[in-house]
Amino acid sequence: MSQFFQIHPENPQQRLIQQAVEILRQGGVIIYPTDCAYALGCHLGDKKAVDRIKQIRRLDDKHNFTLVCDDLSSIGTYAKVDNQQFRLLKAHTPGAYTFILPATTEVPRRLLHPKRRTIGIRVPDNAIVAALLSQLGEPIMSTSLIMPGEELPLTDPYEMRDLLQHQVDLVIDGGYCGMEATSVINMVDDVPVVVREGAGDVEYFK
To answer: Which residues does 162 contact at the CB level (< 8 Å), separation at least 6?
Structure first.
């Protein structure tokens, strides 16, 4: 049975943030709000938790997972970025974008696309996420909370609890945060490519 925390979207309660981070550190799977939709998250290095998320969403090994970061200062640890790419990232973060980049060896192989060795990087504009990441001190492994057979993410935390209370360890109710997934920009090659149009404005990348 999952826990259910109601966390203030602008002034997150530090006690609840600490408890949520402890659940992550102990291998838990959480549902949490971002700046455009709710997401599933777990500790970066926990294989069992990643497998649980794959099972919930029925994902195969070709799915590109995303590392949710608090800022770009640690991006060089997990992704290979040149100066031009970094300037682009800086201009569009925080925001509703996922950037696909070549991964470094710091990223566990099981999180990568098996052929392309890429990883998604995301810096959401959301106070709850910022508080979680600050307390955790490293990225959260994440994917949008889109159920199998659906095109849009779930939006109601109570519905999430009803559906997934036996499959996740924590549902964070951070209020309504939208129902549109991120815009996905592939930056592996010299010219950025829009893979998916979502909540972030993609005109610049076309």
So the answer is: none
Q: How far apart are CA 103 and CA 23, in angstroms?
A: 26
Question: φ, ψ for residue 109 (rounded to 5)?
Answer: -55, -35
Q: At what angle do helices 127-136 and 14-25 cross, to 10 degrees?
A: 60
Quote the strand ranges of the chain, DSSP E: 3-6, 30-33, 38-43, 66-68, 97-102, 118-122, 140-144, 170-173, 183-186, 193-196
Rounded to 5 degrees, φ, ψ at 178 are 100, 170
- C-alpha span between 7 and 174 (Å, rounded): 5
Entry pTM: 0.93
- Which tens digit of pLDDT belongs to each residue from 82-129? 999 999 999 999 999 999 999 998 888 777 766 778 999 999 999 999
Q: Are 49 and 28 within 8 A, CB to CB?
A: yes
Residue in 2, 108, 93, 6 with CA at minimum distance from that of residue 50: 108
CA-nearest of 158, 120, 125, 140 to 23 is 140
